[in-house]
Specification:
Strand content: 5-15%
Number of strands: 10
Distance between the termini: 42 Å
CATH topology of the largest domain: 2-enoyl-CoA Hydratase, Chain A, domain 1
Structural class: alpha/beta
Largest sheet: 8 strands, mixed
Shape: globular
Low-confidence stretches: 1-20, 348-370
Length: 370
């Protein structure tokens, strides 16, 4: 795996925000007016537009969208987009801190607030916690998270530290129950969601205790003791408790600032232990995040000009993954960092076929509709 950086000659001073609050408001108002005028143009397919671009045009289009978003939002935008087609390479980890520092160092020291476009299925919760804390500590007015589609697991954890979570109607958060790696009976490394692992042990004990035949009950209890890894169980419980503590720290300063301890505890309980989210991959949409979890969520519907800017950028990033072997994309309007991977042998990578199929299917659908 290798990293690639481009367009690094631009300095942080080249990003200049309006000087006064009134000027900034006027600039945002003007940008929104332009977007609304553009919104009256002939409808188009954002997916088709993105697929048709070559790498050079794709790069230019993405940067244009980021600059327009910055004008509308009135503060800098940075992005962290993972290629979920190669999820075994793109999960959140310690390397991300280095690239995030690279992006943040390009933003003027006087910046009050930043926006992070985040698309990730998660990874290392320690990395997520550290990145959220860095973003809060660097900027006096904190940061907003913008989720085009997915911010699951550890990516959800980052979101909890944001002042505001901006979501579309198809955006997803997820439970923050941690996952640990354990060797199974066949010697393979297997991911175990902590909640499900501990829950299975509790359920097994209940079934055994309710067994009417004492001999069978004792036999199964002994089997459970023999096959239980008590060190791993203790690790699961400690990890669970750590996630609860980290989530509370983030929520108190971020997406639930000003809420009561009881409300924060209820939200953490739902996101870790909740019966509504039995699986680690369970979906939490904007409506639930706002009304049930009490998170500070702002909804951009699909007709919102800001969402269309965001979605155009996101589709270009997704299309780029089909052109180049990129596992992660970190970006500002001035800096692009691509974490790349190599394909061994002559066989095309599976995700190339997936993108080719997507392009073909979309084009066919467009022709049928046209």
């Amino acid at each position: 795996m290798s990293g690639e950086s481009k367009n690094r000659k631009l300095t942080s001073n080249e990003f200049q925000m309006p000087q006064s609050a009134s000027n900034r408001k006027e600039g945002i108002k003007e940008s929104m007016s332009e977007l609304k005028r553009a919104d009256t143009q002939k409808p188009r397919s954002y997916v088709l537009d993105a697929i048709k671009l070559d790498s050079k045009k794709n790069n230019a289009k993405r940067k244009k969208m980021l600059r327009e978003l910055e004008n509308v939002l009135g503060s800098p935008v940075i992005t962290y987009i993972e290629n979920r087609n190669v999820s075994y390479l793109s999960s959140m980890g310690e390397n991300d801190e280095k690239f995030m520092i690279d992006l943040l160092s390009s933003i003027p020291r006087t910046t009050k607030k930043v926006n992070l476009i985040l698309s990730s299925f998660g990874g290392d919760p320690d990395t997520a916690l550290k990145e959220a804390q860095i973003l809060r500590d660097m900027f006096p007015e904190g940061f907003n998270i913008i989720i085009p589609q997915f911010a699951k697991s550890a990516a959800t954890l980052i979101s909890l530290g944001a002042n505001k979570i901006i979501m579309g109607q198809f955006s997803e958060l997820g439970p923050i129950d941690p996952i640990l790696v354990k060797q199974n009976a066949e010697g393979e490394q297997v991911n175990f969601p902590v909640k499900n692992y501990l829950g299975a042990i509790i359920e097994a004990k209940k079934m055994i205790i309710n067994e009417g035949n004492p001999q069978i009950r004792n036999m199964y209890l002994k089997k459970l003791e023999v096959h239980s890894d008590f060190n791993f169980i203790k690790l699961c419980k400690d990890t669970f408790k750590t996630i609860e503590i980290d989530a509370r720290k983030l929520l108190e300063r971020g997406a639930m600032k000003g809420r009561t301890d009881e409300e924060i505890s209820n939200t953490i309980n739902i996101m870790i232990n909740g019966q509504d989210h039995l699986l680690h991959s369970s979906l939490i949409n904007a409506s639930e995040a706002q009304s049930k979890l009490k998170l500070n969520v702002e909804l951009w519907d699909i007709h919102d000009p800001r969402f269309k800017l965001l979605w155009t950028y996101y589709m270009c990033a997704e299309a780029l993954f089909g052109i180049e072997n990129i596992s992660k994309l970190y970006e500002t309007p001035n800096i692009t960092i691509k974490e790349t991977y190599e394909i061994e042998g002559e066989e095309p990578d599976a995700h190339d076929h997936a993108n080719e199929t997507l392009a073909t299917d979309v084009i066919k659908a467009s022709r049928r509709q046209g």
